[in-house]
Design brief:
By secondary structure, the protein is α+β, with helices and mostly antiparallel strands. The strands form seven sheets. It has a six-stranded mixed beta sheet, covered by helices on one side. The chain folds into two domains: 190 residues, OB fold (Dihydrolipoamide Acetyltransferase, E2P); 222 residues, Chloramphenicol Acetyltransferase, CATH 3.30.559. The protein has nine helices and 23 strands. The protein starts with a strand and ends with a helix.
Length: 434
């Protein structure tokens, strides 16, 4: 019987390797041409790798959690007599979140091998069937529901806006509806629970994988390479609140949610025009400073899979309403795991809005190879002394964390002061918009 090696294909975007997150098939399974057989994560995105041939899975050459270089053999398929799988063909998919089951509830290859099959009209059919879904859920949650043989449409979501979470799926399964424990049961090789030496409790060990591992690698590399320093200040945003409320009403009439973030972006862009170093990067290999003549603004998005940074391209060319619409779109798709690789690349500076969660100040880590990151924090009411009187004011704190190889402390202080002047005077900000 002839065999065919299935290699990790060239994914593009300069990617040279990926982490095998999860096998979607087991040894002995029949597969059809172009059927996804594995999930591989590269650069904060997960792609489904298809098999180029139909046949039967004969052997895995790599294991879940392995780092696989491009063009490396991942599995071997027997391609003797062609078999047909009753499953719709799917193109290669790409998303921003790791779609594998949580590390504490992995799917083993042995479980995949034991997947029940039945004969339908002479063709081999794989259970469970893929059902249409009309509920909010991430791709990873949908896959977990299919593997657990649970109809996700029957689950009442506990997440934001009724979103179905992994915990909802597992709880629904445990109630006895569509039991398929082998697909979600933890295995000793993946998770270890053991008592403390002192007998005071238990500890749980799970693999550091997927987006969490990629975040860890990126943060560690950045902290090792970039000498960080942070400068902090507060801004009186009373006038900004008034302007934003007006824009909020105008946006609501058009179905657009307007937050403070697009105003911060516009003030940041105007300030970077004044201080070009902040819109630059350092080419370490060439030992050159690269000044960007475009303004691509990244913003940190908190998602169930970890921190993602969608990027608004050519932000200087877009209005407040256009920025607002794009921010909402990118944020929703980041949480749903639907961002494309290109939508998380090319930022010239990043904004992190910790204030939406809470916190007075922080020291964010720069998104290398950028040279600065701005933090915006919670808004508070505060008495401000002006014109000989105390007046109630809305105050918001800001930080600038900079790469000390390129930016000095005094320059960072001048940059932040200039930014705050703009954010405190929205009329000046609108005059500078292009």
């Amino acid at each position: 019987m002839a065999t065919q090696e299935v290699n990790l294909p060239d994914i593009g975007e300069g990617v040279t390797e990926g982490e095998l997150i999860k096998w979607l098939v087991g040894v002995g399974d029949t597969v059809e041409e172009d059927q996804p057989v594995a999930e591989v994560m590269t650069d904060k995105a997960t792609v489904e790798v298809p098999t180029p041939v139909a046949g039967t899975v004969a052997e895995f050459k790599v294991s879940e959690g392995d780092i696989v270089p491009i063009d490396t053999c991942m599995l071997v398929v027997n391609v003797g007599e062609k078999t047909v799988v009753a499953k719709t063909k799917q193109p290669v998919k790409e998303s921003s979140e790791s779609q594998s089951a949580p590390a504490s509830t992995p799917v083993s290859s042995s479980a995949a091998e034991s997947t029940p099959q039945k004969s339908t009209n002479g063709a081999a059919a794989v259970e469970p069937p893929v059902a249409e879904s009309h509920v909010l859920a991430t791709p990873g949650t949908r896959r977990l529901a299919r593997e657990a043989n649970v109809d996700i449409n029957q689950i009442e979501g506990s997440g934001l806006a009724g979103r179905v979470t992994r915990e909802d799926v597992l709880a629904h399964q445990s109630e006895g509806e569509g039991q398929r424990a082998s697909a979600v049961a933890p295995t000793p090789s993946k998770i270890e629970v053991r008592p403390y030496v002192g007998g005071q409790g238990v500890e749980e060990r799970v693999p550091l994988r997927g987006i969490r591992r990629k975040i860890a690698e990126t943060m560690q590399y950045t902290k090792q390479v970039v000498p960080h320093f942070t400068i902090m200040d507060e801004a009186n945003v009373t006038e900004l609140v008034k302007v934003r409320n007006q824009a909020k009403d105008a946006g609501a009439a058009m179905g657009i949610k307007v937050t403070y973030l697009p105003f911060v972006m516009k003030a940041l862009i105007a300030t970077m025009r004044e201080f070009p170093k902040f819109n630059a990067s350092i080419d370490d290999a060439a030992e050159e400073i690269v000044y960007k003549k475009y303004f691509n603004i990244g913003f940190a998005a908190d998602t169930p899979s970890g921190l993602l940074v969608p990027v608004i391209k050519d932000a200087d060319q877009k209005s407040i309403l256009e920025l607002s619409q794009e921010i909402v779109d990118l944020s929703l798709r980041a949480r749903d795991g639907k961002l494309k690789l290109d939508e998380m690349k090319g930022a010239t500076i990043t904004i992190t809005n910790i204030g939406s969660v809470g916190g007075t100040y922080a020291t964010p880590i720069i998104n290398h190879p950028e040279v600065a990151i701005m933090g915006m924090y919670k808004m508070t009411d505060k008495p401000v002394f002006r014109d000989g009187k105390f007046r109630a004011a809305k105050v918001m704190n800001y930080t600038m964390t900079c790469d000390h190889r390129l930016i000095d402390g005094a320059e960072a202080a001048r940059f932040l002061a200039s930014f705050i002047q703009r954010i405190e005077n929205p009329s000046r900000l609108f005059l500078e918009m292009r």
